[in-house]
Amino acid sequence: MSKVLVIEVKTRDELKQFVKFPMDLYKGNPYYVPAFINDEINIWNPAENPALQYSESKQYLAFKDQKPAGRIAVIINHKEEKELGIRKVRFGWIDFIDDPEVSQALIQKAIDYAKEKNISKIEGPMGFTNLDKAGMLTLGFDKLATMIGIYNHNYYPKHLENLGLLKEKEWVEFEIMFPDTLPDKIHKFNELISQKYQLKVLRFKTKEEIIQYVDPMFDLLDETYKHLSTYTPISDEQRKTYKEKYFKLIDKDFIVCIVDANNNLISFAITMPSYSKALQKSKGKLLPFGWWHFLQAGKKNDRANFYLIGIHPEYQRRGVTSIIFKEIWKIFRKKGVKYLETNPELEENKSIQLLWQDYNPVNHKRRRTYSLDI
């Protein structure tokens, strides 16, 4: 029986091998969507990833029969420990062939790292922060992945469960087929809510007009999710990075912003055309021709992904979600979008899931993190 060799990633070539491993593992899989190679490499660069200012991490590669067989990253978020009192080793970027020896060797690295740091718990898959990808797929292996969701083979969860890891958190995702028309009662209800609370939907003529609302959006995210037990506020450095990284991909027409009588942002929603097939065609690279696939996906696409939503606590459960949905419906009707896939939502976050309840959502994906007390 061949022994599994696990090495720590230390050189740039090893980092590239770490980043590209899943692309080889899922080659030919019609549901896997690769990430941008350069973005994945930059995650481990302190100059590019602000989370590294308050986190420490290591990456490992596993080999069997002298062939790449798996990977894993381990992370300690000191901000999480300081602000929430949560002390754990996060593990992520975990991929492996269908071999129990490989998955065991990788998880053992996370356990060893935790023991070295005198930490008694590991949890994953997850990234550095709340805005990173998290959760191992447990339902929806035959569904196309999105840019913001982890994809994995169906044998992954079984491997972790066999190693004694237990379910920690659960996320749900929904697919919604948009109706051709909305009932008159929805139009009337929206008018009533808008007039009652003196709310206004903003219209943007250029992308630059949105910039002044980006920081208020982040503020609203903090207000919306601060009640969740695992949420940590978004730092100024993170805000800057997310602006630079994602703003160029945002289509102004897919953003809904609602303000009150004083022009204060009380709710927003960001959707985008689905770039999953464009990423598959570009194979994780914008150059030389990847940009073309993205351009086409933005122009003609019958699918969209829901990315972020923020609703000020004072306006939750007051009908504002109905206004958001109607505005999204208007955008999609104009753009020819028929299907919307939500982002992963914590199963406990019922207030956000209320947004979809009247539109026959189908729970087509589920994912979870696994933990182990050491």
How would you summarize this macromolecular structure in one to three sentences?
This protein has 12 helices and 14 strands. The chain is an alpha+beta fold and 374 residues long. The longest helix is centred in the N-terminal third of the chain and has 17 residues, at 100-116.
What is the residue-mean pLDDT, rounded to a whole number? 90
- Cα-to-Cα separation, first versus last residue: 28 Å
Low-confidence stretches: none
The counted number of beta strands is 14
Number of alpha- plus pi-helical segments: 12
Shape: globular
Topology as H/E string? EHHEEHEHEEHEHEHHEEHHEHEEHE
Helix content: 25-40%
Radius of gyration: 21 Å
Proportion of strand residues:
25-35%
Query: Structural class of the helices, strands and pairings?
Result: alpha+beta
Tell me the major beta sheet. 14 strands, mixed
Could you describe the 3D structure shown?
This protein has 374 residues and is an alpha+beta fold. Helices cover 34% and strands 25% of the residues. It contains twelve helices and 14 strands. The protein has helices at 12-25, 37-42, 78-84, 100-116, 156-162, 184-197, 211-225, 236-246, 276-282, 290-299, 320-335, 350-353, and strands spanning 5-8, 55-64, 67-77, 89-96, 121-124, 136-139, 166-177, 200-201, 255-259, 265-273, 303-311, 339-341, 345-346, 362-373. Strands 1, 2, 3, 4, 5, 6, 7, 8, 9, 10, 11, 12, 13 and 14 form a 14-stranded mixed sheet that branches. A hairpin with a 5-residue loop joins strand 9 (255-259) and strand 10. Helix 6 packs across helix 11 (320-335) and helix 9 runs antiparallel to helix 10. The chain is globular.
